[in-house]
Amino acid sequence: MAEEVKKRVFSGVQPTGKVTLGNYLGAIRNWTPLQEQYDCLFCVVDLHSLTVTQVPAELRKNTLDLVALYIACGLDPDKSALFIQSHVHEHAELAWILDTIAYVGELNRMTQFKDKSRKHADNINMGLMNYPVLMASDILLYQTEYVPVGKDQVQHVELTRNIAERFNARYSDTFAVPQCLLSKSGNSIKSLLEPTAKMSKSDPNDNAIITLTDSADTVRRKLRRAVTDSDTDVRCVHSSPSKPGVSNLLNIYSLCADVTVEEAEKQFEGKGYGVFKDAVADAVIAVLEPIQAEQKRLLSDKAYLENVLGQGAEKASRIAQKTLAKVYRKVGLIPRVR
Ligand code: AQP
User: Fold this and answer.
1) Residues 206, 225 contacting (CB under 8 angstroms)
2) What residues are labeled active site?
3) What is the CB-side half-sphere exposure of residue 60 using CA atoms within 13 A?
4) What's the pLDDT score for residue 187?
């Protein structure tokens, strides 16, 4: 009997700082169960992180920390290819070809580009604008069918679909056209201090984010200071759109304690924010502590991590070379004679 060909999944996180609870609940945590059903590639997208200024030594540290975190969160190198984007040079090469397909107008409209241009007004570099094209390259290189991302990245996956369809129409069928796989909760995790903005690892205010390396005391302190509202009812946005802070905490609690938002609301009805915030902290800490212990253990075994990355890059390269050769042929580039 012919072996069943599994559909392919690709996703990644930038090593731009300490990974947040948002990155975990919106993305990484949802990748683990996919490994059973799909052919998965999970990448640390270090080239993307260069679009904002990085300290080289910190970037190297963040990259390895993130690889260890992937494994600590349940990604299994025997089931999924885990690798670093810059180890597979085809990502940057395909991005150049896709740059000739993407339009300046559509890149200019990307929400992330506008947000980051505002935040980094002194460094609006071409890479920042090209970010979605490199992301399209990451995805299309592997003939990806599903891209599990948080809601904030949906616009980039839509653009990837447009680029793939445009290329296919111009040069004949070449790329699989990918779809988003959104997390169960759907909503982004928001900043603790500005709950209408998403929680981001590059937020300059450390009190606005929970990172996966925060100690139990730090998590508790940050959650106690989280913005709620002036009244004392614990009620989510479904019943009161004017309470984004409480809504966000209810969302975090429901994902960490594995209950629905409605169940959580009922549980804390009339209890006041002090009790509620402590319970949110308990639930978050219970999720973080085992991950932190495992990440620490993995980081003490550099040889193991290097081996995982070598294997992952090898598998990724095999697929990437095939796609890039096909693309070069289709656009009319002459292959090098050996
Ligand atoms: N707040 C969030 N809620 C839910 N999901 C989120 N993601 C990011 N923030 C949230 C998801 O995490 C994945 C990795 O994101 P990334 O590092 O590639 O880029 P990003 O979306 O720009 O994440 P950050 O934390 O905001 O990074 P910086 O500050 O460097 O820009 C994606 O799947 C994303 O949806």
Assistant:
1) no
2) 116, 198, 201
3) 2
4) 73
What residue numbers bound the domain in which 229 lies?
206-296
Ligand 1 site, residue 150, Cβ cutoff 6 A = yes
User: Which of 57-61, 70-74, 225-229, 287-291 has the weakest average pLDDT?
Assistant: 225-229
Determine the pLDDT at residue 147: 97
Q: Per-residue confidence at 151, pLDDT binned at 50, 70, 90?
A: confident
Query: Binning pLDDT at 50, 70 and 90, where does residue 205 land?
Result: very high
- Same domain for 288 and 217: yes
Determine contact, residues 281/104, Cβ cutoff 8 Å: no
pLDDT surpassing 70 at residue 96: yes
- Cα–Cα distance measured from residue 54 to residue 74, given in angstroms and rounded to the nearest whole number: 28
Asked if 57 and 128 sit in the same domain, the reply is yes
pLDDT at 41 over 80: yes
Q: Is the pLDDT assigned to residue 232 strictly greater than 80?
A: no
- Confirm if 172 and 46 have CB atoms less than 8 A apart: no
Confidence at 185, pLDDT banded by 50, 70, 90:
low
Mean pLDDT (the chain) is 93
pLDDT exceeds cutoff 70 at 231 = no
The CA distances from residue 286 to 75, 172, 246, 282, in Å, are: 19, 51, 20, 6
User: Rounded CA gap, 293 and 299, in Å?
Assistant: 10
The protein residue with its alpha carbon nearest to ligand 1, atom 10, reads 22
Q: CB of 167 within 8 A of CB of 175?
A: yes
Does 123 share its domain with 33? yes
The two structure tokens encoding residue 148: 């599990």
Gap from CA of 334 to ligand 1 centroid (Å): 39
**Are 124 and 258 found together in one domain?**
no
- Taking the centre of ligand 1 as the mean of its atom positions, its distance from the CA of residue 227, in whole angstroms, is 21
In terms of domains, do 158 and 307 share one?
yes
- Residue 214, amino acid: D
Give yes or no: residues 148 and 281 share one domain.
no
Q: Return the CATH number at 31.
A: 3.40.50.620
- Whether residue 16 has its Cβ less than 6 Å from ligand 1: yes
Whether 189 is in the pocket of ligand 1, judged by its Cβ within 6 Å, is: yes
Question: Is 64 close to ligand 1, i.e. is its CB under 6 Å away?
Answer: no
